[in-house]
Task: structure prediction
Amino acid sequence: MEEADIGLIGLGVMGENLALNIADNGYKVAVFNRTAEKVETFLNNSGELRANVMGSGDLAAFVAMLKRPRSVIIMVKAGQPVDEVIAELKPHLAEGDVIIDAGNANYHDTVRRFSELDGTGIGFLGIGVSGGEEGARHGPSIMVGGSEAQWKNAEGVLTAISAKFNGEPCCAYLGTGGAGHFVKTIHNGIEYADMQMIAEIYGIMRDGLGMSPEACAKVFTEWNSGPLDSYLIEITGHVLAAMDADSGKPLVDVIVDAAGQKGTGRWSAIEALSLGVSATTIEGAVAARSISAMREERIKGEEIYGAGAKGKATISLEALEKALLAGKIAAYAQGFAVMAKASEEHGWNLPLDAIARIWRAGCIIRSRFLDQIAQSFAGGAGTNLLVQPAFVEMMKDSSAALRAVVATCAINELPAPCLSSALAYFDAYRQARGTTNLTQGQRDFFGAHGFKRLDRDGDFHHEWPSLVEK
Ligand code: 6PG
Result:
């Protein structure tokens, strides 16, 4: 009875939707879940896709349903549960089979799992799947890393179920080991920065300009037809326009201002710091979520220091739109720079153009902007986005607006951690003569760490005066 093209373990929301997507694309999928009733319910609710789905609450029976070489997707909670499933599954598999972790894994775990299976003949793929519930059902963006040989087992199915941009599948093999999950982590880091910058612009509209949610919604909806055209801008319009049936108020006004975070944004910032790459917009976004969660302290803070100057800002909506574009360029420049460095460090040879291409549809950060990035990076031009000709033009046109917006925020006591990080990054990136000559002097003063000179090669140390009184 080996008839299923692929297996899937874990019938949570994402797992169920992925399985239905597979079935909808004409492939046969077998499902397994620890709670066997879930399998039953899933099969009973599969409607017209019933002919393409099968499953069992018994692991051995589930594996027996799969065509060889077998491909098994695991879609369970990241961390320990993934290790538990691999341990249970492994004895049932054979050489040539492949285990595919489709959760939001920390790429360090993926690297470990990949090497733990090394030598067993069983392959391991860590795939980043973006697009939420709807993406899983109708076409996510899929970032693949791991065993290249066994990628062939699952390539047909995963390519078929992925989102399509002008007919091109948003699914690609990106590199060995943890490459896929690393790229997904950075995708989420960029997602955090993008979302935070949108929230900061909303903050200026609400607190600086005194605009209603309805008025803000209209502006974001309009912006979605311009250079900011993206899924995140589109949903922002919908979120701001939604009304709460219970209170009769705009829903956004009754939602608590404390953001959750599952970890991928933080991992992005940690990886950037470890690699020594500046990703201050991502760090700013993670920090903004952390401070948002300290609601009680913020309420006390406002009592002590007073609120910002409400409704006093003078800034045009056009400047806000351009500032958001400039901030976005800086954030994506940082995210791509982190991936370029990680690629070098791990020998992944990450195709930055392909990454931009598979992010053009299906994923949470999908946008018109990513098509422009894909074009800029085409053919392996792997330098910082800030020096790619198309983005140079955009930045020249929009950076003054970013500066005006950050200045407006500072004067009106409105926090803009991400937009101001973006501006600081841009200003530092274009400053030929920075200020760390002084830092090097200080380091040499107290620690004899040495310095380099502009006028001569070599390492130098200066005999600084002693501050100890003799
Ligand atoms: C995606 C999303 C998805 C999920 C994040 C949210 O690409 O589909 O990024 O992975 O929504 O886990 O992360 P936070 O809970 O940390 O915001």
About this structure: The pocket of 6-phosphogluconic acid is lined by residues 104, 130-132, 188, 191, 260-262, 264-265, 363-364 (CB under 6 Å).
